[in-house]
Fold this protein.
Amino acid sequence: MGPLEVLRDGRPISLPAAKQRIVLATLLLRANQNVSPDELIERIWAEAVPHNARSALYTHVTRLRRALGGAGSRRLIRTSDDGYVIDLPPEALDLSRFRELVARAAAGTDAAGEADLLGRALELWRGPVLAGVPSESLQRDVVPLVVEERLRVVDRWFRLGLRLGRDDEMVKVLKEATAEHPFHERLWAQLLVALHRSGRRAEALETYRSVAALLRDELGVDPGQELVRLHSAILAGDPEPARVLDDGHLPPASQPDDPPQSPVRPRQLPSGFASFTGRRAELATLDALLDREDAHASPPIVIAAISGMGGVGKTALAVHWAHSVADRFPDGVLHLNLRGFGPGPPVEPHAALELLLNALGVVGQRVPAETDARSALLRSVLAGRRVLMLLDNARDAAQVRPLLPGSRSFVLVTSRNQMRGLAVREGARPLVLGQFSPGESTALLAAILGPERIGAEPWAAAELARSCVHLPLALTIAAEHATYRPGSPLHTLAEEVRAQRTRLDALDTSDDHEASVRAVLSWSYLALEPPAARMFRLLSLHPGPDVGPGAAAALAGVPVAEARRLLDVLADRSLLERPSREQGRERYRFHDLLHAYAIEQRALADGPAERAAAVRRVLNWYLHTASRAADLVEPTRRRFPDVTDRAPAEPPALEGPEGALAWVEEERAGLVAAVALSAEHGWDDFTWRLAHALWRFFLIRGHVRDWIDTHLRALDAARDTGDPRVLAETMKNLGFAYWRAGHLAEALDHHGRALVLDQESGDGWGEAKTRNHLGFIHDRAGHFAEALRQQQRSLARYREAGDLCGQGRALVGIGNAYRQLGHHSASMVHLKRALAVTCEIGDRWGESLALTAIGFTRLTGGYGAEATRPLYRALAISREMGDRWGESMALIVIGLGRLINGEYGDPSHPLCQALAISREIGDRWSESLALTAMGFASLASGRNAETTRYLRRALTVSHEIRCIAGADDLLHEAFRTAMPRVGHQTLVSTLSFHTRLQLRLAAVDAPRALGPSPC
């Protein structure tokens, strides 16, 4: 908690060797835990690992032991079976003492006592974390997490200090914190409040002026709205300016580059359990935790970790309680099954963060690529908001930790493991569930079977509960089974369960809990009608996390209506979980124990041929339906000969492009898993065909990671086909995914190899498409002459192939390239031809593309107001087709046209709409274009601070996608319009950003700011 320092008997021990300090710091951060040699090597050398790294590591550990004190240090740092462990009592390490004090504070009920403990914890801080430890990975991966721990404690301690009137203490700590974190505006705001409350109003105002100057000089931004409101409150003499910091009573501050919009308030809870009963003590504990959070003016994050064996009712308790308190979380309720235990791999934090961000309205390429960046963005999105987050079926604390919000939220975690790591480090409150008491078991049976039936044979009900070892899952399944035998006495059912338990005990050596569950499952499964039992078994072959009636019908080879009936039979008997009907989705999923049992029974009842046939049927259903959906979205796409499998008898109804998009989005997880499953079986035809059918959807929705993953598998499958056309087509699709992700080098490489295959195989149409893509890539990169050459050759090939649709796309590309090269007349000639062709063949998407390009060219050619007419036609077509990308591009050009024509400052300006759409679909290039244009609009309107913010955001996005070119000439005209309206100093300041955006200022005819430049 500061510079690395070792004391022995109160005297410092010198550790001059940098690598020894790295080793010691790594061991201390994992005190009393094994640290592998690989981790230590990575911390020391990062990617520059020497060939003798392990022997060098051993030398550093030996020298470290010697420096720490000889034989005693060997006991301090001991060698384990697979690494090293440093054995330290908690009081010997400041970080452990810090966390122990924080945990004690969280467990207390007295505000003064809690504040004292937190104050003692903060006093342990001695400066920047791990100062003097030159490990890039430690500074990157560990230090920010420790710093965030401290800042959470500071925030909590500040709130307590306000209540207790400890203003002078707060000033001291907050001055130290702001010195270490000079750009953390929340800390500055808290310091202003503490200064004002301690009677130092003048110092508070001077502090505000200092931080405002710091932010402007170092970052080029003004203070945020919270600081501005606080400054105004202090100036006005508000006796309690801390109210400004109470985010619960103020709308969240919006940034100028974020157009006003309602925040997404997710309500993701699955339906509750109608027969839920018992757990009164646990429910009371959760209520008390929430009530305690409500008592704080600005509560910290509260985490409750529910643990227990499989089938004990962790999810049922969590969902039931979450429903009961959902209305106390106005900003939404998030739910995510982390699949820590059960079929398939757990959801890794990287993917989990994307799902959570998507639920909060952050989609597509707005989701960062790196896990740490996603985690930080989630905390930013949830800052100042109060949500309930239910993380179900977690594997361990490491899976959960990156998903935690920063403050004000309540996180409920369920896991078979006790989350001791979360309890120690994040202060999670553990809640361990055991089996039901006899009374609770009887109550659950009565809730399902009715009190009359239980009252008639109470001893039989007790025996049935004992046979189910008082486990809620087993009790529920047994009771649901009994409802279908209303004429059977309970004692008969109890005897059957006991007999089944005896039979299974003779077959395996499972523990009491597992054997009892299997006995109940077997008893219930054997009572199913044969078609339902077969459906139960075959569902375990489905690759996705849940399944709908269509895919289930394909698996079992039955009509959809019959599949729906069988699914409902299984759900009614609690052998499947059924989602909330309120969500309007027919999806079913297994409990992990039931999935394991279904696999067991499948192995016993269904031979390899039957299992393979079921998998092939569901893959065929996915392939044919996805192909139909792709045809609706892209009618002109290339079609290879169909696979030999017949089309499904009852394909789902897809109503137009919108219906196709909705179906793919609902089935996306299953579709992506189906590509992987077909690859595992070696069924190459399914693998590459299904990936080909999906790429356009991934493009539209911004699911670039899925796009790349599926096509990497498809690439292997395409190579095995020996068909150069299939391989070339796969390379183009994968290359276009890399283009969308901003990896232009990879995009060019894959298209270059595809071009070779096209030419070797004599595939003229394939070559035309490849060159068309290459034209787009070079245009995005700013290589306009090369873009023109590729599009001209694409046009020639499309003409040879007789493809009018392709000719229209190539003509648009030629027109765009000519415009960028300054040849407006040639541009208009080609674009008008493109428009004529697309209208002739009814290619609405191509027509919209051509109209938008015509608008571009007319605006840069000085056509004035007339230039925007085709843009409004393009906008109407895009909206009619549901083409969000086309809509955003038309709006950007319309917005720039308004700016050039002298229209500024309209809050409903098309640029704001374009920015919102580009973020919604995850198109970073159009986002950067809209931000740059909005910067110029702000410049023309004299809103200089907004100009700075917009252009900085544009710069950030452009760097992330490694490209800024594509509309340079049009932006130049907009900038020429804005320039005369501002003063010299503002112009100079703005141009400094243009330079960083690769915009050039010519010596003559200043400011010619946007000449083309390669990325």
In short: The longest strand covers residues 388-394.
